[in-house]
Specification:
It is built from 4 helices and 2 strands, in the order E-H-H-E-H-H. The chain has about 80 residues and is mainly alpha-helical. It has 2 domains: about 1-45, no CATH class; about 45-75, no CATH class.
Length: about 80
Amino acid sequence: MHVDNQSAISMAKTDRFHDHTKHIALPYHHVRSTISLNTIALFWIDTHSNIADIFTKALDRTKVSHFSSLLGLAV
């Protein structure tokens, strides 16, 4: 799984848990358990190369076109 947030990767790979992360307790434990079972692996990806941004952010026309083509979609 490609992730553009290094803090999220760090939290998922270590057993540190802080008061600021209480609201993500269940997702955090699920991701940690799947990582420990080697079901998924997390890899950092530069935010400008993160294809998933097309689903989560407002992007300029150039990025929409580029990410769409990488997904095999026609614009």
